[in-house]
Structures are given as structure tokens and as C-alpha cells.
Amino acid sequence: MERREIFKREILMKAFWTEKETILVEGRISDSYHEMTANIEFSFPGLEIVNIECSFIRYPHEECLDALKNIEGVKGLRVGKRFYYELMERIGGPKGCIHLNNLIYEMGMSAVQGRFARWDEMAPPELLNMPKPKWVKLTLQMMPGLRDGCSAWASTSKMVKEADKEEI
Question: Of 56, 113, 122, 159, which one's alpha carbon is 20 to 30 angstroms from that of 152?
Fold first, then answer.
């Protein structure tokens, strides 16, 4: 089948542990019409947005820049199951930019992965080397919000069912 590219979007995320003991996520979204960057600092381990800086590098309309006026409104927002909904409540629709909101959402998801990476750095070797069902049980005790957050962490998944049988 013959084809011709008509649109392209790339998203890049990097998470860093800072001297302030926070997670800093640097994000960039670039597509055929837009390019924007953001730096978001998240508290650890709560993942509350404590600081945010955004810039539009390329955009189709001057009015797009109006979205930056409300960006401080996401401070205090916490990454969790309702993160996207609450993000849209604060800066969605006419208060913001859907492309920037998508970037911020993805940065929140990257902060979650950064938190896991940081916990791995902090964990004693015996925790990382324990049998998986026991590790899953401990993880669910520390972060109950993981349960039913996706198919792997679903109460009905084999992994979680095995963990639920574990004695700690």
C-alpha cells in the first residue's frame, strides 16, 4: 500500500532526582504544528506538582500563548487516578491548550515511573530479590492506588491473586 506521512508527533520525557529530594520531569512535545517544553517538579513520594515552567517554541496561532496564563493553576495537583480529570478541570477547554495538557499528563505518568526508579535506588537488595508475589503484596500495601489501575495490577490478574495469598 502506498502511503505518505501527513502528521508526526514525538514526545520525550526525562525524570531526574534533585538535591531538594523531588522528582523533576523535563518534557517536550513536537508535532507537525506544535513544539513545546515543560519542566515540572513533583514532591516525593506524593507526586504533587510544586513547580511548573512551560514554553511554546512553535504554535499555529498567537492565541495559543494565552494557555500559559493559567499554567500556575496546576500547582498543588497530585498525580493519581483522577489526575487527567483534575488537570482538565483546572486548565482544560478555553483555559488551556490540549497539546500542553497532554504533555503535562504524560509528565505526570513519567513522574510515577521516576518514583518507582527512585524507590528501586533506595530499596535494600533483599527487597529487590524477594519472590515476586511477596514484592507485589508489599508494593500494594505501600501504594494501594495501584490496585485496579491497569490490567497487570487488576485484582483479577494472576500476579495480584498470587500476591493476595501471601503472608507477610
Answer: 122
